[in-house]
Structure formats: C-alpha cells, structure tokens
Amino acid sequence: MDLNEALYTTRAMRRVKPDPIPDEVVASMMDAAIRSPSGGNSQNWRWITVTDREKMAQLGEWYAEAWKQLNETFYAGRVEAAREKGDDSTLRVMNSAQWLADNFASVPLVVFPFHRNDPSGASIYPGVWSLMLAARGHGVGTCLTTVLGIFKHDEVCELLGVPEGKGWTNAAAVTCGYPLGRWGLAKRAPASDVTFSESWGNPPDWPEIGLPISLD
Amino acid sequence: MDLNEALYTTRAMRRVKPDPIPDEVVASMMDAAIRSPSGGNSQNWRWITVTDREKMAQLGEWYAEAWKQLNETFYAGRVEAAREKGDDSTLRVMNSAQWLADNFASVPLVVFPFHRNDPSGASIYPGVWSLMLAARGHGVGTCLTTVLGIFKHDEVCELLGVPEGKGWTNAAAVTCGYPLGRWGLAKRAPASDVTFSESWGNPPDWPEIGLPISLD
Questions:
Q1: pLDDT under 50 in chain B at which residues?
Q2: How far apart are CA A93 and CA A91, in angstroms?
C-alpha cells in the first residue's frame, strides 16, 4: 500500500464484521507498531491483544457504560447541538460511535497499549497510530478509543492482569476488524487554516497542492 | 513511497543539513498531518512552522539549556551507565541527541504542534507521527523532541505568540531537514516480547513473519 493512501484514508472504522483477524496479520500490525519512536528509545510499552469472547463480553458492558458516562459529561448536549446546527458530520460520528458502544463485544480484536514514564503520551500514540496504519495496509479497520481508560481504567487493568504499582497506564483500546463501511477521506479543517507561519495567527503562504491520492 | 517502508525506516533523524525545505513539501506534510484522528474529530490542534533564523537562534539556546537540564535530571547517569554496560545503541542515541542540542539553530524547519482538551495526548501525537511519516515520503528527516515543552514551555509560547489562557499546550518540537545520515531500521525489542495475548504475561502464539521491506 502507498503511504499517502494509508495516511489519508485511515478513517475511524467503528463498524466492523465479527470475522477473526489471522494471527499473521496481528503479528504484522504489532511488528509495525513497535518500530515507532519513543523518548530516548525507551520503548516503555506493553500491548495486550484481546479476542477472547468472555473477556470481550465484559469489556463490551464496560464500554457501553463508559460511553454513556462520556455522553452525560464531556459530550453532554453534543448531539442536540449538532441537530440544531444541521452538523451532519458530527451526527454521523456520534451515530457510528453509538454503534460501537452497542456492538463492542462483537469486535473480533481489541489491542490495549500500556505505557509508563510518558506523561505527555508522546511515546505511545505514534506506535498506536502505526498499528492503525499497518492495519489499514492489511484491510483491517481500527478505531482509537479512550473511554475505557478514562472511566474503567482499574477494572480493565484487573481483567487483563496488568500488574499493580509498576506505573503502567492504559493508553487506548484500539478496536480492529474488517470494515462494514468504506475507506475514505474524513472531514477536516484545511491545513492552511490551522497552521501558522513563524508566529501564531500568521497564515502560511503555500502554493496550492492537490490531494496525493485519487478518490473513487 | 510504500507504507511499510515509511513505518519501518522513519528513524529519529537528528543530524540534518541546513538546506531549506520547499513550501510545497511543508504544505504536503501538514496536509497529511491533519488527516489523522482526534477524539470526536475535535481537531483541537494548531501548528506553527518556524524557519526564521532569529527565532531559531533563540530556540537553539533554549534547546541546549533544556537538553542540559534533562541530562542533569531524568537522564542523569545514563551515558555513564551505557558506557559501563557497553550499550552502544544508547550511546549512539545520546551522541546524536547531543549533536541536535549543539546544532538546533541550524535546523531549517521546526514544527510546533499545540493541542488542548487532550490530557492523554491521544488527539495530537497521531498527527505528529503522520507529519513525520509524510516527511519521510518526501525524503525529509524528522525528530520528535519534547524537552522544550518540558523545560521552556512558557518561553517558547511567548516567542511564538501563543495566546495565553486559551488552554493551548505545546506537544513537541519536530525538527525537520534533509538527512545527513541514512534511513534504516532502528533497534527495537521484538513485538513478541512486548505483546501479550489475552492477559498480561501470556506470550502470543504467532507464526514467524519476515520483515515486509528489503534492507540494503
């Protein structure tokens, strides 16, 4: 797969089939993940791949609860506001996220990355994103979710046998599966709107560049 | 460029030439960066590209001070310990990092990403890593550094005109330039050593997979 194809079309793929992902694909995704940089090459990371249906049933319950909590706190009023504004993009994301909350237990594979001595996250999320890009190369859809780590951190760590008092923190639950939806370009504010040249507020003076991929 | 080539050979490229990076390449790197995921697609990011030599001179001074502080605190004894153990890999990283501290002001481009409402870093470091992978595709070497943000956060924000009280936090200083060194596979502990299957401590039962790229 072409690098730009992966960088541009790896959208959050929450809706996935229950079909299992072959071991060699999982091994390949993980092998790509651990090539990523970490501060001082510390590689202070561990990863747990979960496919066990009993564990997934429990995780699915917690995920649904955590998603509900997110909607009652940080996301309170979000759907209503999007409806009023006619913000279809946000509504689509929220619908898709609700699907994941309703179907988390049927996701064939979830990868849980853990890190320590990494307060900024700079040493784990490049690896998480490499995992997701490598998955894209294998036709596997992923979604970077953090609600379990926010609302159910201790429960998840206990279920997965993460040792206590060693400083390990869960960074994400990356859902993985063969997509029900289509790959494509996600909606973003243009780079020239969010990038400044030399100083905050100073717009860049870039030539026009086209998309480096062709969209069907 | 092939996705795996980028994922496997984008090593920290600290030693770079002072030659400027064309605007269309910077625009392309930024365009790739903003395709990355962020929580709820919030895109709560801003990016500043710095090439101005006066600003870089000041940043270079601060970088050298910050690097010294890092070596006196978190990294204290690191070089000595590596020498005693004959750990050449760590010594090479430390030498290369010292080069960057001595030559920061000559780096042609540094990209400063800022984020807010993102305590874990999950919504900025995928984008930072996409920037670095896209740079790799253009033959541009990068290094994800965080010491300025740790030791000189307020000074950097003032120099770059970042508005106060709006919640913006600097996530990194990504140095960018055409490499003096060679691309290649960085040293990592194997995925099978740091990945567990279903539960912490349980090794994965994966088939052997080869490297997906050829090394010269």
A1: none
A2: 5
> Which residues numbered 6-25 in B keep a CB inside 8 Å of some CB on A?
6-8, 10-12, 23-24
In whole angstroms, give the CA distance from residue B8 to residue B65.
32
Fill in the amino acid letter for A152. Answer: K
DSSP-derived 3-state class of residue B87: coil
Q: How far is B177 from chain A (nearest CA, A)?
A: 17
- Residue B75 near chain A (CB below 8 Å): yes
Alpha helices in chain B (DSSP H): 3-9, 23-33, 53-72, 78-85, 88-103, 125-137, 147-151, 153-159, 191-194
B31–A191: do the CB atoms touch at under 8 Å?
yes
Segment A75-119, tens digit of pLDDT: 999 999 999 999 998 899 999 999 999 999 999 999 999 999 999
The DSSP call for residue B179 is B
Radius of gyration of chain B measured on its C-alpha atoms: 18
Closest CA to A139 of A49, A8, A35, A10: A10
Name the β-bridge partners of A114.
A46, A170
Q: How far apart are CA B82 and CA B101, in angstroms?
A: 20
Contact A204, A192 (CB under 8 A): yes
Cβ proximity of A137 and A1 under 8 Å: yes
Distance CA A22, CA B205 (A): 12
Domains and CATH numbers, chain B: 3-194 (3.40.109.10)
